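ESCALATION

Customer reports they have been waiting on this structure for their group meeting. Please prioritize. Original submission:
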Amino acid sequence: MVQLDVHYVQSGEHHIAWTSLGDSNGHSDIVLCPATFVPFEMFHELPSFATLLDRLSSIGRLILFDRRGVGASDPITPDNPGTPDDLADDLAAVLDAAASRQHALIAPSLMAPAAITYASRQPTGLSHLALFNASASMMRRSDYPLGLTGDQASILVSTILDGAGPDGPTSMELLVPTGADNTLFERWADRGGRMGASRGSAAAIYDAIRHIDVRHLLPIITTPTLVMHRADMQITTIDHGRYLADYIPNARFVELDGSDGPIFMGETATVLDEIERFITGTTSVGEHRELASLIFTDIVDSTGVAAEVGDRRWRELLDSNEAAARAVLERHEGSFHNSTGDGMLCSFDLPSDAVLAAFECIDAAASLGLDLRVGIHCGEVERRGDDLGGIAVNLCARITDLATAGQVLVSGAIPALTIGAGLFFDEPSHHQLRGIPGRWPIHAARRHSQRNYTDNQTPPTTEQEPKA
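Update from on-call: job pushed to the front of the queue and completed.
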């Protein structure tokens, strides 16, 4: 658990909580404006958010704060939830308290209007402005056809506050599609939202969005500006981002893959590379391709187990399972790359080590009362620091989706690469893997003791569809 020093500064009648991470490193301070109702003291509890914070704080001193009405900052009233001008004042107060002489703002979604307002004042210390999945106006207007109608906004706010609309998709499916099946993220977001803001405060803040329109400020901005937007955003569509880039002088627009709203979810490596290159002129984390033997582990029925044992015990089980997996990796000279809570991505130099480690991870999880399934593939990956990406990673994850409890499934590459290693594999069945062209041969791996092949551990038949 990361322990943060929490400071307070007064802005008008409100006290705003803030903290900082890292050192300046000769660059501008970086301010990550709060576009979530989760307080900053909980950011590090989500692995993907912690990774983002670590990367940003390696570029320069990172400043975080809770917006008024959220977390440790003072509460708001329904009739005064904070205008963009108010929030820009809060931002200025935090920067003054932090003695920041030069700073770059990263403003995702809900905080973009406040950052635009602050930038329009042309403060001497503002060196860069980065907007992410942002808009100048969420609402449709007579001269702005991109936004939501009044009815659409009402339905959206109700869906966000209640978690699901009457007949439509859930708020998670709308705003964070990759988090919809991520138990760790769902629990973090639910708990953080409850701790961060009351329902009344959240409703007031969302309702205030209807009145926000900062389009008139865009031509005034003289700060170098980067506009990043994910291509498949459902609510704040990419046309909002293009509008910002068109009307802010000399702004650069970057279209990103994906449909996740939060900056810390989905594919974040490209986002971080763009931000670092924008602020420093280069990237400290180079990208190169290499060959790796990958394993994905996944806890079977993680949602059901978590509901049965409760939050605290579930967290203990996840920590114990990860610790056991890391011990296995050490024995087989493997590397741990990331965790989704109920799943882990690891890599090995030798595919035989990956297979042996997979069975040991299954045994270690079983000793905790957990059922594990594993997928393995060997292929070229893109490496950015400690992160791995590319089609090979996606393919490995899809193979894991096919496995049953206690089963290790491997791609057709593994048997050919491990001849002579004393490993055993079933005859392949062929599958269409979601999002990956072609049909792929999949084998079930055997333990050394399983020399007599049986039918009860073969992969799913070719007629069985992979998990959606």
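Sent to customer with the following note: Confidence is low (pLDDT under 50) at residues 449-468.
Escalation resolved.
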